[in-house]
Amino acid sequence: MAMTTLQKNLVFFGGALLMVGTLTFLAGARKTRYVPQDENHPRPLAVALCRDCHAPGKMAPQLAKHPPKEQCMLCHRDRAAGR
Questions:
Q1: Distance (Å, rounded) from C-alpha 70 to C-alpha 64?
Q2: Total structural domains in the chain?
Q3: Is 65 among the domain residues?
Q4: pLDDT in tens, the chain (83 residues)
Q5: Could you tell me whether strands 33-34 and 76-77 are parallel, antiparallel, or unpaired per DSSP bridges?
Q6: How many helices (H) and strands (E) does the chain have?
Q7: Is 8 in a helix, a strand, or coil?
Q8: Is residue 22 part of a domain?
Q9: Residue 11 and residue 65: Cα distance in Å, rounded?
Q10: How far does Cα 79 stand from its chain's mean position?
Q11: Would you give the end-to-end CA distance of the chain in angstroms?
C-alpha cells in the first residue's frame, strides 16, 4: 500500500518538528557558568589553577557528581575575556 502525498508530507513535517524540538532541548540543557572575577580566580584562567582550590581536600572541592574534572573551560567561561 503506497502512501499518499498528504501522508508523506505529514511524516516529513513531523520528523522535522521532532528534530527541531530535540535540538532546542539539547541546546537549552547546557548552562554557561562564569568564573567569578575576584582575587581567588587569577587571569588568565588555566585548568591547572582550578585544581589548586577545587581538588578533593582543598578550599572549595568539586562535588563527586561533577562532570569531567579536567575540562573546566568547556562549561565555565571567563566573562572578562568574552569567552
A1: 13
A2: 1
A3: yes
A4: 788 999 999 999 999 999 999 988 877 666 778 899 898 888 888 888 888 899 889 999 988 888 877 788 888 888 877 65
A5: parallel
A6: 2, 2
A7: helix
A8: no
A9: 40
A10: 15
A11: 55
